[in-house]
Write a structure and sequence with these properties.
The structure holds 2 protein chains of 2 kinds. Chain A is of the alpha+beta class. Chain A has helices at 10-19, 109-116, 140-144, 150-158, 163-172, and strands at residues 37-43, 47-50, 59-63, 68-75, 78-83, 88-92, 96-103, 182-183, 189-190. Chain A contains 5 helices and 9 strands; from the N terminus they run αβββββββααααββ. In chain A, β5 and β6 form a beta hairpin. Chain A is extended and about 55 Å long. By secondary structure, chain B is mainly α. Chain B has helices at residues 3-18, 44-58, 63-80, 87-101, 135-138, 144-159, 162-169, 172-191, 196-212, 222-238, 244-256, 264-269, 273-281, 284-289, 297-303, and strands spanning 33-35, 41-43, 112-116, 123-126, 130-134. In chain B, α2 (44-58) packs across α8 (172-191), α3 crosses α9 and α6 (144-159) crosses α10. Chain B is globular. Chain B starts with a helix and ends in a 43-residue tail after the last helix. Classes of the chains: A alpha+beta, B mainly alpha.
């Protein structure tokens, strides 16, 4: 098996989340995960719900186009989904379009009501003060008014990693480089890629 | 010199400001005012300076100049948003990015990667190998394969010189001429040889001018974004990652971008995530050949100080829903943890 999941239903998993340490504690300059969110979408064509993330696995159900789904996780080119009639299984990633997400509110109650009405109106993502700087800084206007910051750029340079060190790290991670040609818009191999 | 000649001259000067390479600019003695449309005038020496500046702005950059220009753009971006104050995360992103860049056609540029401390979701490629992404984007990712997808897209832009070409081809003379070009021109007029410092300061100002002019607020041609998407997934596959990580990123954006203020700029400057996914589906057969590639979810979680994903062999929790509850962040690992033994590199 190339995938696993410890909890079978999103509600169970969500309860696990709220039972855990208070998420707010980790909203610091460290990179906590984004506010808990679960993507919802719909099939963008008629497709099959499979028992495993493989085309040759048994079909759980045939899903018509525009079948609403909740995104439960990934395995490469497959998404584990739950349908409105509580069926779970895997569909090809390309066969699903995301429509929004159910976000965790600060109380958590909003999410529970969201999952109760599984496909209730999607919550908008609101600005939250998660990083030390927040949303300011990178709007179009703010970028236009920015003054160069050479000191910060020197810091960026100091974090650079040499090619040799990056290769060593990739080896430790057992990342295997391979030769792959670029492809054109139709998937045909093309030469080059440099100028 | 009669009025007619002056008129031709001013037209030529203006044309030079807008287009590169009006040949054989006549040598104009100083002190002659050149009328401009609207009644304004500039001196001939000013005109000469602007002409030269315009040529500077539109010339073909050498690789060292491309790098200097990109560095100055990065410096400007860092004036808009500082780096995330987390050296472990910064080094981790550099490690992944540098490994990806080594698989590209420009493996020996001075590649540098920076995470901006900012909640917007975006990433930027400056010429010459300076790549920036926001912490808002990083924290919405779930695996090293997803991070690789983002960085490889930006690396592809640099390999193809998409931003550099945009700088050279569009109306950038206006943004560049005044400070960057004129500064260089002045130095040339005074001393002849252009010192390294003078060239750098000119290009440095040029980078700032590009930002003032809204360079990163304007879209590239859609076709170039699709090209960077196609090349990026290949670069990720070359580096040993599952190229479908990038599809996950696009679907994350698809689920969030429409209504979120954090996606406003990336939405303005890129084709919709749905359109990008549609384009990538055309090369699905290629993606499928490499879908056994590494996910690196455990390494990613460790580097970001998140609790380890609930991983059994090669498992990959992909949505935040599948991550265990956030625990108080531990100190981020300086280097990625080794892959779990049970997850062979494939």
């Amino acid at each position: 098996m190339k995938y696993s999941y410890s909890l079978k239903r999103p509600v169970d998993r969500f309860l696990g989340v709220v039972a855990g340490p208070v998420a707010g504690l980790v909203l610091t300059a460290l990179l906590a995960p984004a506010a808990w969110a679960q993507a919802v979408g719909a099939t963008n064509r008629a497709t099959e719900l499979k028992s495993d993330p493989r085309a040759d696995s048994p079909t759980v159900a045939s899903l018509p186009r525009e079948t609403p789904i909740v995104d439960l996780g990934r395995s490469s080119g497959w998404i584990r989904v739950q349908t409105g009639d509580k069926k779970t299984g895997w569909v090809r990633s390309f066969h699903v379009s995301m429509k929004g997400n159910i976000s965790e509110s600060s109380s958590g109650g909003g999410f529970l009501s969201g999952i109760t009405g599984l496909f209730a109106p999607v919550r908008r993502e609101q600005p939250k003060t998660i990083s030390t700087v927040g949303i300011r800084g990178l709007s179009e206007e703010e970028m236009k008014n920015a003054k160069p910051n050479p000191a910060e750029f020197n810091k960026m340079k100091s974090y650079a990693v040499s090619k040799a060190d990056a290769q060593a790290a990739a080896q430790r991670a057992r990342l295997n480089p391979q030769t792959v040609a670029y492809v054109d818009a139709n998937g045909n191999p093309v030469q080059g890629g440099g100028k | 010199m009669n009025a007619r000649t002056l008129g031709k001259l001013s037209i030529c000067a203006l044309a030079l400001l807008l287009f590169a390479g009006c040949a054989n600019m006549p040598n104009v003695p100083g002190g002659i005012a050149i009328p401009l449309p609207g009644g304004a005038s500039i001196s001939a020496s000013q005109a000469s300076q602007l002409v030269s500046a315009a040529q500077t702005a539109t010339k073909v950059y050498t690789e060292p100049e491309e790098i200097e220009l990109g560095e100055s753009i990065a410096s400007g971006m860092l004036g808009a948003a500082p780096l995330l104050p987390n050296p472990g995360v910064q080094r981790y992103v550099n490690q992944v990015g540098r490994w990806l860049a080594a698989q590209s056609e420009r493996p020996n540029l001075p590649w540098r990667f920076g995470v901006l401390d900012n909640e917007h979701v975006n990433a930027f490629a400056a010429p010459g190998g300076q790549i920036l992404m926001t912490s808002g984007l990083l924290q919405r990712l779930n695996s090293e394969a997803e991070l690789a997808g983002v960085l490889a897209h930006e690396i592809a832009h640099v390999v193809q010189k998409h931003q550099l070409d945009a700088i050279q081809k569009s109306g950038w003379t206006q943004g560049l001429q005044v400070a960057g070009g004129a500064m260089i021109d002045n130095k040339l007029a005074k001393g002849g040889a252009l010192s390294q410092a003078a060239r750098a300061s000119g290009l440095g100002q040029a980078g700032a001018d590009l930002l003032v002019d809204g360079f990163f607020a304007r879209p590239l041609d859609r076709g170039l974004e699709y090209e960077a998407d196609r090349m990026g997934v290949i670069i990720a596959a070359r580096a040993g990652y599952d190229p479908y990580g990038f599809i996950s990123v696009l679907q994350m954006m698809e689920s969030l971008a429409k209504d979120s203020p954090f996606f406003a700029l990336i939405t303005k400057t890129h084709p919709s995530p749905t359109d990008r996914i549609t384009e990538l589906e055309k090369i699905a057969a290629t993606l499928d050949r490499y879908q056994g590639g590494d996910q690196g979810a455990a390494r990613f979680a460790a580097a970001l100080g998140r609790a380890a994903p609930q991983a059994t062999p090669a498992a990959r929790p992909a949505t935040p829903a599948q991550r265990p509850a956030a625990s108080p962040a531990k100190a981020p690992a300086k280097t990625p943890a080794p892959a779990p033994k049970a997850a062979p590199g494939k």
